[in-house]
Specification:
9 helices; 5-stranded parallel beta sheet; binds flavin-adenine dinucleotide
Length: 382
């Protein structure tokens, strides 16, 4: 069989799994190339633990160059363009030909879309800012901490609520009297998961004494005055501001022929194939409309499970076997409470007319489950 080249763009949750799975499924005559602008893979969920000092950065990162030991070629370069007709990925220094392409470039962050974000807020989704936040928390003297969501969609719908719960528990542990508040344009926490999950998370916030302002869009951050200005003209004061920045499709995708008007890539919801033959997209860079009208949330669990399907089907195609695996819309999520416990939600997001999601009572075992998942993830794929 002639050797094929599979090029995977992005070494995050989705790309990492595709590369590993394909390497296991295909012989050495087939080339697997993983391209990422960063030298390392970051296990994003641990950013929340890093914030409160439960992790150090080196415990949640792995060098993507380690994949070479497994026979995966790693190229650390920025993807500058893709020529779908010629089947070529362009970086700033080279052109890389492919037979199959998997795009898993995630979402880009645009904090600057809210004036004053960079000056006034810690970016909860950026490693360097979370390190700065962790260091500043120890000396924090104020009495009001705000967690703010800039816009929808954003990855990991639970993350801002977990951040608020973790911060609240951190301040309590430090015997500091700090009012934590969540400000979000969402009508309820995790709206795609339905009203039961939303009201459960809202009641967790309430029981912890965290103030919650849904349906609130922040227009600007006045860093000098330490105030948020909302779209409806209110001013919300803060001493510390932790922000989920605005998200958008990666620039290289947004302007390409494969993207929808929104910039995200439409795919077949079951096979993750794009409109172009032999080109697949998975994870946060995609847009998959659900029966409820909302899109499938951006979360690592989906990137992971989609990656398994795509890797299986590409390997099957190369081996001339029927490509039968389909992504069924299942997903799950741990919700950290900050006191050593976590909640757990699991469900099917392709259910009609709306996702069907069940909740489990918070407990210490779910927190331990999340820790074990982190350890497994970094062991399994490196
Ligand atoms: C604080 C936080 C907590 C989270 N917690 C959870 C959780 O508990 N559960 C969950 O399911 N999800 C969670 N997520 C979301 C999860 O991390 C993402 O949804 C997931 O990583 C998406 O995978 P992906 O492969 O689509 O993109 P990513 O993992 O973001 O990977 C994209 C990769 O592409 C690279 N890249 C981008 N553009 C280029 C370019 N032009 N050239 C080269 N490389 C490029 C990036 O460097 C990156 O490595 C969390 C996210 C955050 C920030």
């Amino acid at each position: 069989m002639a050797g094929r080249t599979i090029c995977i763009l992005g070494g995050g949750s989705g790309g990492l799994v595709v590369a590993n799975k394909l390497r296991n499924a295909l012989g050495a005559e087939h080339k697997i190339i993983l391209i990422d602008k960063l030298s390392y893979h970051l296990f994003n969920p641990s950013l929340l633990w890093l914030m409160v000092g439960w992790r150090r950065p080196e415990q949640m990162k792995r060098d993507l160059g380690l994949l070479k030991r497994k026979g995966i070629d790693f190229v650390q370069e920025e993807v500058a363009g893709i020529d779908f007709n010629k089947q070529v990925v362009k970086t700033n220094t080279q052109d890389i030909n492919y037979d199959y392409l998997v795009i898993s470039l995630g979402a880009d962050l645009y904090p600057e879309r809210i004036a004053g974000f960079k000056e006034g807020a810690y970016n909860l989704y950026q490693l360097s800012d979370v390190i700065r936040l962790r260091d500043d928390l120890a000396n924090f003297k104020g009495d009001k901490a705000v967690v703010m969501v800039s816009s929808i969609p954003f990855k990991c719908p639970a993350a801002p609520y977990e951040a608020a719960l973790l911060l609240n528990a951190y301040f309590k542990g430090q015997k500091k009297s700090v009012q934590v508040q969540v400000v979000s344009p969402e009508p309820q926490p995790m709206p795609v998961a339905g009203p039961v999950v939303g009201s459960h998370v809202a009641s967790l916030l309430n029981m912890s004494g965290i103030q919650y302002m849904p349906n609130t869009t922040v227009k600007a951050i006045k860093a000098d005055k330490k105030e948020l200005e909302t779209a409806d003209g209110k001013n919300i004061p803060f001493d510390m501001l932790v922000g989920v920045p605005s998200h958008g499709a990666p620039a290289v995708i947004k302007n390409s022929s494969i993207a929808a008007e929104t910039g995200w890539i439409p795919v077949n919801a079951r096979s993750l194939q794009t409109k172009i033959e032999n080109v697949y997209a998975i994870g946060d860079v995609t847009t998959i409309p659900l029966a409820s009208g909302k899109p499938l949330p951006k979360a690592g669990v989906f990137a992971h499970l989609e990656a398994e399907v795509v890797a299986h089907n590409i390997a099957a195609k190369i081996k001339n076997q029927p490509a039968v695996n389909e992504f069924n819309g299942d997903g799950y999520c741990f919700v950290e409470l900050g006191d050593g416990r976590a909640g757990f939600a699991k469900g099917n997001f392709y259910a009609e007319p709306a996702p069907s999601v069940s909740l489990w009572r918070p407990g210490r075992h779910w927190h331990i489950g999340k820790v074990l998942f982190e350890k497994w993830w970094l062991w399994k794929w490196f």
